[in-house]
Write a structure and sequence with these properties.
With 130 residues, the protein is an alpha/beta fold. Helix content is 30%, strand content 16%. The N and C termini lie far apart (78 Å).
């Protein structure tokens, strides 16, 4: 007596349906990812472990005692904008490296960024490497 079933199950597994699902998910995420943060700002931020690709034109440093330096020259806060404009005049893509010491109020660093924004200078915030 033969009791075997007539329908035999194939031991092979077809991956075509799995690849279709993965492809559809990939397309879905690629299409929806730009819509997640439409208000995001395009900021040029330095990496803490790497070097910046921008060429440094000037360095503005702010100490804990709220003393301002352009490169190594001490300067008053009131003459900061005029000195930056005169030194970066005629420079292609003027860039400022902002070095604010720990403990400096954020308003002072933002003040330098506002000067750079008014005059269309790029600002890179210097950080301490990890």
């Amino acid at each position: 007596m033969n009791l075997r079933g007539r329908n035999k199950v194939s031991p092979e597994f077809s991956m075509s349906s799995m690849t279709d699902i993965v492809f559809l998910l990939l397309v879905f995420f690629l299409l929806t990812s730009p819509a997640i943060t439409p208000e995001a700002l395009d900021l040029v931020l330095p990496k803490a472990k790497g070097k910046s690709s921008n060429v440094q034109n000037l360095s503005v440093s702010i100490t804990n005692k709220l003393q301002y330096y352009i490169d190594n020259e001490r300067i008053s806060q009131s003459s900061l904008e005029s000195t930056l404009v005169s030194r970066l005049n005629g420079t292609n893509e003027p860039t400022i490296i902002l070095r604010a010491e720990e403990g400096v109020p954020i308003e002072k660093a933002v003040g330098v960024m506002e000067i750079a924004n008014r005059n269309k200078f790029k600002v890179i915030l210097a950080v301490r490497p990890d």
